[in-house]
Amino acid sequence: MTDELRESEPDEGRLKRRTRSERLLEVIRPFRRVVVVSHVNPDPDSLASMLGIKALIEAAQPGKPVILTVDGMIARSENRAMVELIPIALVPVEQVDVDSETALVMVDTQPHTGRRHSEAVMPHVVIDHHETGGEVETALFRDIRTHMGATSTMVTGYLLEQGVLTSPALATALLYGIDSETTGYPREASSLDDGALIWLFPRADKDLLAQIKNPKLPQSHFATFQIALANAFIYDDLVVSWCGIVTQPDIIAEIADFFVRFDQVHWSLATGVFEGMLKLSLRANRLGGRAGEILSEAVNGMGNAGGHDKRAGGAVTIPDPTPAAVEALLTTIRHRLLDLLEIDEQQGRRLLDGCPVIPPP
Question: Could you say which DSSP state residue 109 is in?
Answer without folding.
Answer: S
